[in-house]
Amino acid sequence: MYRFYRVCFSQLISYSRGRTLYISAFPRASNSVNNNIDTIRPRRAILYVPGHDRRKIEKLSNLNVDCAVLDCEDGVAANKKTDARNVIREIAGSFDFKKIEFAVRINSVDSGLAEEDLMCVLSGERYPETLMVPKLESSAQIIWINEKLKLCSKQTGAKKVNLVFFVESAKSLLDLRQICEKAVDLSKEGLFRFEGLVFGSDDFCADIGATRTEDATELLTARQLLILVAKSFRVQAIDMVHINYKDVPGLVKSCEEGARMGFTGKQVIHPNQVPIVQKAFSPSPEKVEWAKELIRLFKDHQNLGKGAFTFRGAMIDKPLLLQAEYIVKMSEQFND
């Protein structure tokens, strides 16, 4: 991480007339393809389902989860990869996902399996709304994905899909800004809409030689950096999996921490985790009521020519108004 800090701090610019420091290493970027993060479909919980397991896929009909990811990668054994592709292609045309987002996680570009995944899952009667790409480490791999999607479009008629990719190594994290810039650039006229970043904690720990602990302090810097980059490009930031799916208190704590940090959702590996996660990443009814009342009073004060004012014991100004507006917008997207 030394190189990261050296790069960041070498680019600190201090203006002599003020005391504000601007970190030019991560300025706010413009993702012209997305008007705002509010326009992106909510992914409070993304649930992984092995692509070859018909029984588990069928169970989705009884779940209220934002996003179901039919997996071709880590959740599928090497001798089941072909089965996973074929089952996903077949079931996509007949299964009723209702309000659940239908996503597919392909194998990594470097695995040599990604092209077969794409050609198969994008050739059925219905293809995924969202494509998730693991272990993405360079702008060249984004270019590769775009070219393969063009090829798929010519051969299968596949249209534009949403793109979410995974950060799972030190290289990926340190090069993340450049990778995102390329994704935004290609998405303007390409066949994907860049919508989010996912933090792959276990692969990341393995890559840097860290020991995973219960409170995940060894991952704090990486998680914060991913949030900064994601938000600068106005895309979603999806937090790490809580591996012990039976540990409800630990899951609640992890969700609350992630939401406070700025993550917009979390990966889940068991259906029982879904309601806990989606509640944690949703504004509470009390918070929504607070936000709506604040917005109403702010407008009243503006009409009277007044600026900041006190509301429920707190001084209210423009930054808090923006926070309130965001809470209301997000609450309107949820179907719970």
Automatic annotation (TrEMBL):
Its EC number is 2.3.3.9, 3.1.2.30, 4.1.3.25. Its cofactor is Mg(2+). Its main location: mitochondrion. Residues 44-271 form the HpcH/HpaI aldolase/citrate lyase domain. It comes from the Eukaryota. Mg(2+) binds at residues 168, 203. The keyword Cytoplasm does not apply. It is found in: Mitochondrion. Keywords: Acetylation, Hydrolase, Lyase, Magnesium, Metal-binding, Mitochondrion, Transferase, Transit peptide. Gene3D superfamilies: Phosphoenolpyruvate-binding domains (3.20.20.60). GO terms for cellular component: mitochondrion. One of its GO terms (biological process) is regulation of cobalamin metabolic process. It holds the Pfam family HpcH_HpaI. GO terms for molecular function: (S)-citramalyl-CoA lyase activity; hydrolase activity; malate synthase activity; metal ion binding. It catalyses: propanoyl-CoA + glyoxylate + H2O = 3-methylmalate + CoA + H(+); (3S)-citramalyl-CoA = pyruvate + acetyl-CoA; glyoxylate + acetyl-CoA + H2O = (S)-malate + CoA + H(+). Homotrimer. Mitochondrial citramalyl-CoA lyase indirectly involved in the vitamin B12 metabolism. Converts citramalyl-CoA into acetyl-CoA and pyruvate in the C5-dicarboxylate catabolism pathway. The C5-dicarboxylate catabolism pathway is required to detoxify itaconate, a vitamin B12-poisoning metabolite. Also acts as a malate synthase in vitro, converting glyoxylate and acetyl-CoA to malate. Also displays malyl-CoA thioesterase activity. Also acts as a beta-methylmalate synthase in vitro, by mediating conversion of glyoxylate and propionyl-CoA to beta-methylmalate. Belongs to the HpcH/HpaI aldolase family. Citrate lyase beta subunit-like subfamily. This is Citramalyl-CoA lyase, mitochondrial. The gene is CLYBL_3.
